[in-house]
Design brief:
DNA-binding, seven-stranded parallel β-sheet, homodimer, globular, Arc Repressor Mutant, subunit A, Rossmann fold, 9 helices
DNA sequence: CTAATAATTGCACTATTTTGCGGGATATCT
DNA sequence: AGATATCCCGCAAAATAGTGCAATTATTAG
């Protein structure tokens, strides 16, 4: 990897996360922390970023102002994304659904990790296009008018042809008795089909969504293998799920 | 191998990957790294590329940058797009391939026109997401590492399930005897499959691409129903195609 | 056609850049 | 203050770049 390439990657990282840790970058880009620090010093010298203890932040006075990506509760989602990324292993086949946390998640994938990622999200697929070691497969189908993703019967058919090791789903509502629910009927159907196309299901959700219910049922809690929230695993709201045999991360 | 030939190969490499390593190029082109470095220095001197330690990268501020070259031909593409848009009729099923002219083309679609558009282009699909009266269907499959689009066997399978009224294809090379050719093997296969999934095929190409040939055959001229260029239909270069029964717009 | 001239290329050698590491300084947190 | 993490400095190894030169090839002049 060229030095400029690496520095561009750092800038890109700051653009999406607003901040970077030297240690994380070191892992992500497979170079020593010293090299990262030297890069940060250089970039800061050009006025691109602001160097801080432990890493760097977006420079508010930068000539090229970074357009901030509007992801709600980004800080919490970052925590979830980082936990989720620890589950990846080279060679795995991953199924991903959702465009908030998953979009952050891919930044935590090390450069040298080889993965196959199936998704129905246009944004995710577009982002993954730049990752040379990741084979991205887009599940074809009709594009929803609500979200930039494919939904419906075509996607469900396509899912019948594949089987993933891990399925990362972003869920908006989960209830210990009712299970996972969704506000969109087609989305619920599609998610349900995704459950059947993976060995393991990892549900990512914000803690304030625990206990909520929406009109359309996706699956019951027993079908989930792991829940990831921004809280620590021993958070009191999570007991009722761990009691049902669901792993908490 | 001629020097210019080699330098063109380097430019091509940068065009597709946005970067090159001197060491890789040396292996690829079977010359010493010194020669590569000299080439890079020369190309950088002309402002074509930006030389960096370890290789070179695409020059964003280049006078004749590749991206800008696309843009510089945007005027011609606009003319083609406007002509092409006149073919649309409400209720039609359209198949679209390509991300330059087609991206401009959708802007010429009237707001009240109802269409179904099949495409394998991520950019096009993302743009069409905002058009409420257009039902967009993305042909699923593996995402190319060269272009943000799905290619290959999955797309070809998906094409087997559909049939469109019109197929708008952007072609890079057309020759009266050899037919339509493409520089990418998978792309050529996929285009070929698209020909079979539409009643009418409309080929859009810039006039300076007429008569050129690339390694991989897509289809012969007889399979095209219409050619659209930025020139007027009675342009001398187009006679040889109209003589073969192809409509010119 | 031949000889002179110019351009191109690879090689040996040296210079520069980049990188990781150890050691000590500095900052952060409790 | 003590523990830990982070940072900075200098060094050495490795990678990459520049330079001069000789051999080869292409081009041009006569």
């Amino acid at each position: 990897m060229l030095k400029v390439e690496r520095q561009n990657a750092i800038l890109q990282e700051i653009r999406t996360h607003n901040k970077v840790h030297s240690s994380k970058l070191s892992q992500l880009l497979n170079v020593s922390e010293d090299t990262i620090r030297r890069d940060l010093r250089e970039l800061a010298g050009n006025g691109h970023i602001k160097k801080v203890h432990g890493g760097a932040m977006a420079n508010p006075n930068s000539p090229e102002s970074f357009r901030k990506q509007k992801i709600s509760q980004q800080a919490e989602r970052e925590i979830i994304a980082e936990k989720a990324a620890s589950l990846f292993q080279s060679g795995q086949v991953i199924l991903m659904e959702g465009e908030s946390t998953n979009l952050l998640l891919v930044d935590y994938i090390p450069d040298d990790m080889t993965l196959t990622i199936f998704t129905n999200s246009l944004r995710l697929a577009t982002k993954l296009f730049n990752y040379q070691n990741i084979e991205t497969v887009l599940l074809g189908g009709k594009i929803s008018h609500k979200y930039p993703m494919t939904l419906g019967i075509d996607v469900i058919n396509a899912l019948g042809e594949i089987h993933a090791d891990l399925f990362f789903t972003e869920i908006d509502s989960i209830h210990e008795d009712i299970g996972i629910t969704d506000g969109d009927r087609e989305n619920a159907y599609t998610k349900k089909a995704m459950f059947r196309s993976s060995s393991q299901v990892i549900a990512m959700c914000l803690s304030n969504e625990i206990g909520t219910i929406q009109p359309f049922k996706v699956e019951s809690v027993s079908q989930i293998h792991m829940i990831i929230t921004e809280e620590s695993p021993d958070h009191h709201q999570l007991n009722r799920f761990s009691n049902k045999g669901v792993q908490i991360l």
